[in-house]
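Forgive a beginner's question, but would it be possible to get any protein sequence you like and the tokens describing how it folds?
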Amino acid sequence: MTLAPAPPGAASNLAPQATKISSVPRFIGGFMLLLGLHVVACVAAAGMIVGLASLEVIKPDYALLAMAPPLAIGGLQLVYVVPLLLVAWRRGFGPFAYGIVACAALTFMLNAACWGLLSLSMAT
């Protein structure tokens, strides 16, 4: 039993099939990108505060303000999350945009929990 060759112009069964990329890696990519941007923003803001304190532009006692950026990330993230989300959404990167939204929501919840614990500890 022999197989006849495919006629010219016909698709061969041996040709690689186009694989559809799963949306999970794109979702994880959006999540991890925003997580990395959060780290960069916190380090940059803390570095600016410590740098200003070392130059004595602000009092060195205020160097404790370097702890503020991780606590204030909720407001700070609006500066870069909203434009990133709009660009991703308009270019049709749906799962990537959903990853950004998920990371922003998680950041918001963690920030709210930290502020809640901080305010409860200061109340007593």
